[in-house]
Amino acid sequence: MTRQQRWSTEAHAHVVKVAKGGDTAKYNTWCRKMPSLIQTSGLIQALVFIESRGAEGKKFCDDLARIYDPKLDRDKLRDKAQKAPLAEYLALSRDLINVSIWMRRFAQIELGDKEDQDA
Asked: For 64-97, what is each residue's pLDDT tens digit?
């Protein structure tokens, strides 16, 4: 199984779990915005911004980290990004953009197009 296949499988599972849980508006918004947020603000700033949004933001960052690597959580991912040399940081950013694109695709399908202006 390729990384992309694993990421897509994991992203779908996480988004479906959120869809079954009820309140999906903020999670849907973060799924839609995360790829461009990483590109415009940088990986570390994007992670810290979403985490600062409370328990839902922390859950989203945990999901992102676990989809990327099941051994990571949001704190370990942020730490890895902060300590990475430039080439590794750029590769990590590229990979997490790809992971978040999978999350966005499945959020569009499973969570619909509801927009949350508060996120």
From this structure: 999 999 999 999 999 999 999 999 999 999 999 9
Rounded distance between C-alpha atoms, residue 113 and residue 29, angstroms: 9
Domains and CATH numbers, the chain: 3-110 (1.10.520.30)
What pLDDT score was predicted for residue 27? 87
How many Cα atoms within 13 Å fall on the side-chain side of residue 35? 14
Instruction: Specify the long-range contacts of residues 58-65, CB closer than 8 Å, at least 24 apart.
Output: 59/27, 60/26, 60/27, 60/30, 60/31, 60/34, 63/14, 63/18, 63/103, 64/34, 64/96, 64/99, 64/100, 64/103
Residues 6+ apart with CB under 8 A from 113: none
- The per-residue pLDDT for 55 is 86
